[in-house]
Design brief:
alpha/beta, globular, six-stranded mixed beta sheet, Rossmann fold, 206 residues
Length: 206
Amino acid sequence: MDRILVLVRHGQSEWNLKNLFTGWKDPGLTEKGVEEARAAGRSLKARGLNFDRAFTSNLVRAQHTLKLILSELGAPDVPTARDLALNERDYGDLCGLNKDDAREKWGDEQVHLWRRSYDVQPPGGESLKDTVARVLPYYIQAILPAVLRGERVLVAAHGNSLRALVMVLDGLTPQTIPSLELATGLPLVYRLKPDSTVETKEILHP
């Protein structure tokens, strides 16, 4: 039994390129983002990985990334669930603001706290702790049971919703999670033990 779980952050979005806080806003992928998603699909195909089930968020950039990956795998009809539980962190009042402009207005330290701390909320938005609180129950109820049944599962989502999952899988703490960066379009391949802990982890580079 494989018990394979693959996590992929969506390819570069138009707002990533413009250095804007995105959150629950819904920009599409750039040309680079499309290529990153396709490259992720090719990397997975080169490893002989195929999938029984996929999960993604309610946001277009993650859904498009998943579609491109499955297309590269020649498996466009993999059963897919979409859920806002996997959405990016809601950055609240920061959504749409340029990150450099935000630093000028509030200072480097404050913006860094909003972006990277575990439990500090941006104005009107979610902390990573809040994001974990919605991602983790969905993982436990919907995603993990499929993996433990032996299904190969692909999750295409966002930097912070996936950081929430990696925090649990890798046993990171509120003190160590701020330093974790997830690159766009690079698959994280986990093989789980029967007790749901991690047996192996690999990052697939193109």
